User: What shape does this take?
Amino acid sequence: MSSHDINNLQHSFRRAVNLSGSPGAVSTSPTQSFMDTLPRRMSASNKAKALKPFSTGDMKILLLENVNATAVDIFREQGYQVEFLKSSLPEEELIEKIKDVHAVGIRSKTRLTANILKHAKNLVCIGCFCIGTNQVDLTYATNAGIAVFNSPFSNSRSVAELIIGEIITLARQVGDRSIELHTGTWNKVSNKCWEVRGKTLGIIGYGHIGSQLSVLAEAMGLHVLYYDTVTIMGLGTARQVPTLDELLNNSDFITCHVPATPETKNMLSAPQFAAMKEGAYVLNASRGTVVDIPALIQAFKAGKIAGAALDVYPSEPGKNGAGVFNNDLNPWASELTSLPNIILTPHIGGSTEEAQSAIGVEVATSLTKYINEGTSVGSVNFPEVSLRSLDYDEENTVRVLYIHHNVPGVLKTVNNVLSNHNIEKQFSDSKDGVAYLMADICDVNQSDIKDVYDQLNQTDAKISIRLLY
Ligand SMILES: NC(=O)c1ccc[n+]([C@@H]2O[C@H](COP(=O)([O-])OP(=O)(O)OC[C@H]3O[C@@H](n4cnc5c(N)ncnc54)[C@H](O)[C@@H]3O)[C@@H](O)[C@H]2O)c1
Ligand SMILES: O=C(O)CC[C@@H](O)C(=O)O
Assistant: This one.
């Protein structure tokens, strides 16, 4: 596209209508930061139109918990205004910061509860820069028209490798030997130190991480059993067992890779420790709610289990620092840290350069496509909806993004509004009572846009409306 065309395009954007109403709606002219990126966008491709909602200010992105720099770069290239923090925030501070942002990026510590989300008046999407999404009130987010994205498996390999390392470290008491030698103690022993070859690993949760771990474990000569609520084909010679008890009764190493749900809360507690083999080892790099740690401490002190590796805890510090893992956070902390052959790590299962970089790119790309084009593919809570990009020669085409309660008659009402223009393409899907309609309508001039928005805004079933052009 020539520089003349680019100037025309920038000029037409500047004439964009200033719309009031729902913060997620299209409004006023593009921001300078977006306009500055236009020449590069145009040169990139004169076919796919770079759609973007226009707000009275920059698209505001809040990134917490030291989200990887790859994400920051992607957002800034889009011309978004990015606020980056290395830690999570106390609730009051988070409420203050989240109230006018359009997207927020978190990892596993920040809790986006209904009480926090209700203050986020402009929020259109949330990025969990990790696998777990239990830290977000997904029901509230869905009903508020906020799409949630995560990175379903970019750190799975990192977790699996950590567990393999910890299995050997526990079996050989390497942690204790290292701590001793750091203090000058030479303790060369083989008592109750084992090879892992020929031993049995019990995997609870055979999803992305569990199955990755299964392959690595079998390569190390371990026999693999797994328990899952879903029937899943085992990899290699791994064998699914029908009950958790059968796994506990027969495993030398037991590792948890399930999500935090009501069903997995305290999944390993006193009865489960009692069902384990004498001298079993327990590993948990899933969520801190899955293993009852006081019960684990008792089982260890009773000699029932020979060691444990924990990467996650019911309460975790909001940021790095000395002395922050203490009895104020978890009442049993000092008792746990006093025990031998217990490996304690600060939720680093996914903390590798490779995983964090991949997660940063994956989630930032998902959020950008949702903000700029409305694409919800990969969302954990929304119906997956997308349409092919608009072309630059579709000048007076507007993309309508209409999120609504899934009740009869809505599509008729909405299409009555849209059919005042030619509907070039449309896609709609629903999930858990919420539906998402995406439509590209043609021959829409600037004065029509506000009219389309206002009519849609008057429909009873609406949850959220955005118009992109
Ligand atoms: N420590 C870390 O840094 C780290 C990193 C990544 C993921 N995680 C945690 O690990 C969890 C698992 O990750 P994933 O990517 O393997 O998830 P996944 O969804 O791919 O696999 C989870 C598996 O658990 C099974 N499951 C669910 N409830 C169960 C139950 N009650 N009993 C038995 N099986 C059950 C599911 O059917 C599924 O197969 C995540 O939810 C996350 O919380 C932690
Ligand atoms: O890196 C994190 O903060 C979370 C990692 C992990 O718990 C996940 O859910 O992916």
